[in-house]
Request: fold
Amino acid sequence: MKKETYEAQKAFAGEKKPSMLRRCVGHDYTGRQIYMITMVTEGRRALFGQVVGKSGAPEGSPDEPRIELSELGQRVVDEWWAASLHHPEVEVIALQMMPDHLHGILFVREKMEKPLGMALRGFKQSCNKHYRELVLGVPPVPSVALPTQQTQPALRKDRRGEDRTHGMLFARGYNDKLLLRAGQLETWLRYLADNPRRLLMKREHPDLFRVQQNITVAGVSFSAIGNCFLLRHPVRLFVQCSRRLTEAEIQAKVKEYLTAARQGAVLVSPAISPGEKAVMRAAFNEGLPLIYLQENGLTELAKPSGTRMEACARGQLLILSPWEHHNEQITISRNQCLMLNDLASRICENDLSTSSTNK
Reply:
């Protein structure tokens, strides 16, 4: 396939501007539901404290990954856990503070009079008072006597009516995820608890966790994260398995590809068919080097999830995508599958020693 085909697909995928701040269309935000909420500071400033420790240190040890909160960070924590006092319908399940953002889990147990967003707006406003007092040195406005019209300073308000005279603690909006399936809450709780360790891993291996945009590989532009030196490995092997393979034939393919990988080949695949998934999963679990192509692109702040992050830290993994990032969950089309397989084949066949990989 020609480069123009990939560029056309890329343009089509980018027609809808991605936003992590969109609400779920049609969802009742006053009803019973569990949410994971993410809020970031204005300008991603590290105002809540600092993450300390070592990524490999065990839990309970002096070097255990953790955040040491600033005074402002502690006040934000107190405000979050006080949410049930202001809104009895809401139960606070968890909170993980990070230097420039927070992740929290809330359970709306009963019907709310107003959408959850109004409660979160009140939380942000309360935190903003602490920010102005502790960071900007602006004393709190006395509640007993309001300034007269002659002495009241002019307020600079944005289009939503928020007073931004002295700046704001949080950036506008927030991201929410809805709990939709069994086991999802446990996954969220593990993710929150693991956040400090993941940040330390990124600091310890900055080159492996920096998202690179517009790197050119085999004449096609990609976003990438992971070990780009795998592209220059002398032996790259395209993993392709027919959907018609029986289970016994799949296991034979797994054995064949693992043998090649153990002998030094880097396996390359979008892992679409059951056989391809089995091969890549087995190689991943064995710690063998992989280049994985995916349909969804990478944002500047993207990071691998779960065990993929550890694989990136070891230099075992490279993730590539030829298309723009999108927030919607979509089913990959047959045409996209063909294009990804074609790209995987080209990555293995071309001499990439002079590719533009920004390394």
In short: Residues 184-204 form the longest helix (21 residues). Confidence is low (pLDDT under 50) at residues 1-5, 10-18, 144-155. The longest strand covers residues 33-40.
